[in-house]
Write a structure and sequence with these properties.
Helix 5 packs across helix 7, helix 5 packs across helix 8 and helix 6 crosses helix 7. The protein is of the alpha+beta class and 242 residues long. Strand 11 and strand 12 form a beta hairpin. The two termini are 18 Å apart. It contains 8 helices and 12 strands. The protein folds into 2 domains: 113 residues, Jelly Rolls, CATH 2.60.120; 80 residues, Winged helix-like DNA-binding domain superfamily/Winged helix DNA-binding domain (Arc Repressor Mutant, subunit A, Orthogonal Bundle), CATH 1.10.10.10.
Length: 242
Amino acid sequence: MFLKLQAFTRLSSFDREALAALGHLQTQEAQPRRDLIREGEQPKAVRLILSGWACRYKDLPDGRRQIVGFFVPGDFCDLNVYILKEMDHSLSAITRVLYAEIAPDEMERLIDERPRISQALLWHELVNASIQREWLLNVGQRSARERIAHLLTELFLRLRAVRLTEGNACDFPLTQADIAEATGLTSVHVNRTLQELRREGLIELTQRRLIIPDLDALMGVAMFNPNYLHLDHEGRHLDAND
């Protein structure tokens, strides 16, 4: 779980041990398509995804839903959410999800005692904000083809950062409805666009598995600039003692 944070700041062996211990705290399991917590409920802990995929979403009274973020292993679902009186969004499992619930005092102790981790967590939140800006640009300016190519590229790179890819392939449990709700498109439009990307040899998507034969080509279609993910170890100059 510390692989993602190490992309931002070098962590000592003690830092890594402290993060690994989080996975042995209060762990919970959510079944596929079940909510971890709903809008309006009181948040009492920070959630860290240990395995599986989850999403953040908002919905309307008539049932329409917008996915505003995906979580993969190593992602925290809002670091300071426990200061709120109630959730202003919902979290839901895409697949079976195992996650740690970190009590506020435990989170504050970790931040106070491990300054490198505190710095890495700050980067984590800044990157989350950067991803939200990119998603807003997606919906506001990119075509359907560009939006979907961009989403596939982003998720692949995020999974690769935590070593959950195999060469040019990765697990991909999202349905066409999930992609539609994340990109502001209809399922029909998503289906048509995915078929187009397949015909051009840009992606292979079968049996919950994504293969990207030529990542640079897909990035070109999406006009993808990976700088917003900050996965190039920008914090490597911030050395850590073992």
